[in-house]
Amino acid sequence: MDDEFKVAHGEAVGTVAAQSISEPSTQQVLRSFHFAGLGSALVTTGLPRIIELVDAKKEPSTPLTTIYLLPGYKDNVDKANAVLKKLDSVKVSDVALRIVESFDKNILRVVLSKNKLKLYELTPLKVAERIEKVFKLKTAVKENKIIIKTKKIGIREMRLLSTRIMKLLIRGIENSGKAQLNIAPNGELYIIIYGNNLEEYMKIEGVDTRRIYCNDPFAVYRTFGIEAARNTILKELKLTMDNLGISLSPRHLMLLVDAMTSRGIIMGVGRHGLVGAKKSVLARAAYEETVKHLTKAAAIGEVDPIKGVTESGIVGKQISLGTGSIKLAVKNINKSE
Amino acid sequence: MLHAEAIKAIRFGLFSPEQIKRMSVAKITVPEVYNEDGYPIEGGLLDQRLGVIDPGLVCKTCGAKAKTCPGHFGHIELVRPVIHPEFGKFIYLLLQATCSSCHRLLLDDNEIKEFKELIHKELTREETINDVNITNALSNKVKYIKKCPHCGAVQKKIKFTAPTEFYIENTPLKPNEIKDWLAAIPDDDLKTLGIDPNVTRPEWAILTVLLVPPVNVRPSITLETGERSEDDLTHKLVDIIRTNQRLEQYINAGAAQLIIDDQEALLQYHITTYFNNETAGLPAARQKTGRALKTLAQRLKGKEGIFRYNLIGKRVNFSARTVISVDPYINIDEVGVPREVAERLTLPFYVTEWNIDKAREWVSRKEYPMALDIIVNGQRKRILDTNRDEVLKELKPGDIIERQLVDGDFVLFNRQPSLHRISMMAHRVRVLPGRTFRVNDITTLPYNADFDGDEMNLHVPQSLEAIAEAKYLMHEAKQIFSPRDGRPIIALFEDQIGSAYILSLPTTKLKKEEAEYLLGLSGVYELPDEVDGAYLGRDIFSLLFPKDFTFETDDIKIRKGRLIEGKLTKKTLESIYKALGAKYGFEVLQDFLFKAGKLTTAFLTLYGITVGVNDYMLDEKKEKAREEIISEALTKAKELYEKYKAQELQPLPGSTLKETYEKMLISILVDARSKAENFIKSNYDISNHAYLMAISGGRGSEVNLSQISFFLGQQLTLSGTRLKRGYYSKRILPFTEPFNTSDIIDKGFVTTNFYRGLSLRDMFSHAAGSRDSEIEKSLVTARSGYMNRRLNNALQDYYVYPDLSVRDHDNFLIETIYGGDGIDPTKVELLKYIKKE
Predict the structure, then answer these.
(1) Residues in chain A closer than 8 A to B663 (CB atoms)
(2) Distance (Å, rounded) from C-alpha A119 to C-alpha A110?
(3) What is the CATH number assigned to the segment(s) A64-88+175-214?
(4) Which residues in chain B have their CB less than 8 angstroms from residue A310's CB?
(5) Nearest CA in chain A to B198
(6) Scanning A179, A198, B712, B726, which has the fewest C-beta atoms within 10 Å of its C-beta?
(7) Are B484 and A20 spatial neighbours (Cβ–Cβ below 8 Å)?
């Protein structure tokens, strides 16, 4: 490759990256619509998604995992459905029509829907057993109703209990929502599930652990480590940008993602992340929480080395980027007088 | 004067009372500011030893006048110690962490060692200590220690009520008790906590002497009425002195403890609000008018604070701002500067042995362009008619002349908001009559400017380095390709593309006079070969290419500088720019763009692109097609509904029956408009100029045409569903039939068009979508602005190291090779065209 095409030494690529990412987002109308991108799954996109990723929010608003299946499962609908059944979480509220509280008799009645029970292949007895096991309460089944005898408790406790019963998982995986089976263009079956409990998904037989993909960087970081998390953020950012129709050289996103993960953990760009990790007191004070940073620096006798862009600008020093990264020495030739 | 480059580092710390007294030039004791004669009182807050602000006066400390006196600090001796409010948390931490009797750190030797390492990591920021900081780590540890590991004393519980009250086992802890306690903490223990005891001793956070800032920090203003109005800080300091005095009187008079305590609390309040008038839990101190005082913390904080307003962004000289207007006949790297501006802006001219003749010429001129000032040995002097001869006589190498701006000088041109680096580029000056900056229309794209009253800024780089950087790095010609995606950002646009498209058609033929007019205007002084007694438009355009330019893609063929096949569209033009840039460099490309801009604009004066009602009116055939498309969609929708109702619909994987129906219905309805678009594509030609603009890529698309002439199509909400919100009866609007789930039209399938107008319910359907996106837009601007700021702050220190890795100024490695390949993002696209050769 010609040297002519290489980046110039000292080029402030960080600023270029930041501007390249944020400039189009102020120009275009970034619609925050949820799109039916994968099957009918609704995923946050647009600016809210970009901000979520860049901020390194610990809990993304729509964690979603794509589970590919092993050979033998990916082309067999019955077997794939068996995997799906293990993944798909069914709550009491999914099969219940309503829950009735009798405060005087200390009884909770859960009325179940026949159709729903059929859909999820459940019986009232199974549901009752589950409730009995988790809450350690006596239950009785009467046709479609489960009658739960509670201890003598107040109205408040009763309400709490009834909501907790409705949220009870009959089957499926903790911290996950609905799962659904989809068909890829190449005819392969795969599963999409709301949730990020990667470890649990991978324990299920038939799941291709090498191709599993989750859109939550922190979940990926916990299970696969920082490099995988870096790739996840990059991929998600790229996907979001592409969906918005913003053309952007991938190097800008790469730089951002590398900066966010170069310390071995995922750091956001805000005051608790990359900016907060700056050495310079002045740079931090100029960014946010001015007084806090200054007083803390004074209390412990901190030293600001004045090397970065913001601090140099404040004191009027030449910025050490770009042409400022090069120092010239002049050889003093004595002029013959 | 201290030169900024000499600053190696800045150390933060606390002033000890002794230091304060040492640096103070005046002890302030009098709460009054002026005496009866309106003169500053000695020992008052405007004591002339603290510096002067009135132009005539002389500073009593340094003897300098208002402009040169830097100001000097004074001090107030407080009768009782007072807690510095901003250090409340810090004091609390130390009280918790140290023994109440021996004042050692409540950690045993092992823990101390452990802790030292942790602190070291945090201070050097070697490792990421995300949520760990000394405060949290220490207070978590210390909370559970009941007994001092050093002297064995049982620890009592310390309580802290923000901002300044402390209790030990519910008895109040007085500031002087705290002071003694903190003073007894040994230096070694402070070091463990990461505190440098040579710079900061914690007891200094308890104030016994208060530093009074110089007067030029808090200047008083004289109103028109001759009344003087003091700065907020001065007001606050007056309060402090008064309260302090009264407290002293009470103590000397032996007043009741209760009264003294009250007065002490008042002093504490005044000092707290003096530092920060937004302290949580305290009422803000107010002016008589009810406005909260702006005290020290408020001066520093936030967007209008000292940091962001005065230190990060600074006001500059040698700049100009005015309205911009178009001029397609100045080059794209030029800027038309009004004479008035050029006369006032100057550039330094360094007189040397070699250019002294030129310098004399500058000085001797009596009208524009002339030299305005001369700087001899650092002394600036105006060059006037009265002293011109004298200046001329004494002119010698080493002098600096300040001359007016002339054609060809490099200046920086900028339009706000400066969202990316190409919002500020270097242009060559072209002095023109008029009062606006003149800009070539092609140049508006990177600035995102238009001419509806936009104003732009101009800066004149003064040093030789700055001029060189402007010329070689920021020059407009070097910014044709955007660093964002490597695509051209300075390029023909809108009707210029339409014009180029027409020119490139083989049927476009021009008369000799026309060809001469176009080419002459574009600065090309030759004619192409004649074809059948006329000149082909594409041959005329081809003259702008270099003679040996050969370039072929699937869409376009250029051989030896002649366009042989293909049409000029936005897409093909873009590939031409890249090829030209790759092969001939940016100067040639810039020249091409300039000439092509002039040529295409001039051609429009002959040909003209315009649209009329006829372009959007549907003839019988088209009207029939429109009706067919609509009725087809409606029948299909109805069939689907029947199927859905009869439960014959096969649900899509993962969807319920209802969801499946919705999805399939939406795809049918959305499809209807693409059918209209396809009809336009196959039935319209470029005699319809709206269509011409669409296919050439200049502006608009088939969507616009179909919405004007055919129908608007299905209106979707932001979440991609049909309109569904509304009444209990499942209808959207009150006048529609209730419980009609099959109603396609009511739920946003708009069959009317802009040409004939929307029906009432269609208007509502359309407005629902518009309203959604309008709301979204207003939210997005604020959010993206903040994201912009955070990203910039987070990434601004990263740059390319000579080995092409990306690092920050501490050599912290971010990327081993920039972008994985080390290629300049503005040249990525060009690289592809080099390889093709």
Answers:
(1) 36, 40
(2) 18
(3) 3.30.70
(4) 312, 793, 796
(5) A301
(6) B726
(7) yes
Residue of A nearest to B660 (CA): A40
Domain with CATH 4.10.860.120 in chain B: 15-81+211-308
**B175, B210, B240, B256, B711 from B250: Cα distances, Å:** 18, 20, 15, 8, 87
Place of tokens 């007083």: A295
Give residue B58's pLDDT band: very low, low, confident or very high (50, 70, 90).
confident
ipTM confidence score: 0.88
Q: How many CB pairs under 8 A join A and B?
A: 324
DSSP assigned state of B310: I
Does A299 contact B90 at a Cβ distance shorter than 8 Å? yes
Helix then strand then coil, in percent of chain A rounded to 5, is 45, 20, 40
Considering the domain delimited by A11-62+215-261, tell me its CATH architecture: Orthogonal Bundle (1.10)
> Quick one: tokens of A277?
């990790």
Q: Which residues contact B532 (CB under 8 A, 6 or more apart)?
A: B509
The domain defined by A281-325 folds into DNA polymerase; domain 1 (1.10.150)
- Distance between CA atoms of residues B576 and B169, nearest Å: 81
Q: Where in chain B is the domain with CATH 1.10.132.30?
A: 613-774
* Residue A192 touches chain B, beta carbons under 8 Å: yes
Please give the residue of chain B at the shortest CA–CA distance from A294: B12
Where, residue-wise, is CATH 3.30.70 in chain A? 64-88+175-214
Mean pLDDT for the stretch of residues B119-140: 61
What architecture is domain B495-606? Answer: Orthogonal Bundle (1.10)
Q: Do A286 and B312 touch (CB under 8 A)?
A: yes
Write the class of the CATH domain B15-81+211-308.
few secondary structures
* Interface membership of B121 toward A (CB under 8 Å): no
pTM exceeding the 0.80 threshold for the entire prediction? yes
Extract the tokens encoding B101. 């009797």
Closest residue on chain B to A290 (Cα): B301
Domain with CATH 2.40.40.20 in chain B: 319-476
Residue B375 and residue B400 in contact, taking contact as beta carbons nearer than 8 Å: yes
Question: Cβ of B483 and A42 within 8 Å?
Answer: no
| Mutation target vs A (from B784, B816, B832, B835; most A CBs, 10 A cutoff) | B784
Task: Please give the CATH topology (third level) of the domain spanning A90-171.
Answer: Gyrase A; domain 2 (3.30.1360)
For tokens 């029947």, the residue is B642
Joined together, the tokens standing for residue B516 give 């001469």
CATH number of the structural domain B319-476: 2.40.40.20
CATH of domain B613-774: 1.10.132.30
Interface residue A14 vs chain B (CB under 8 A)? yes
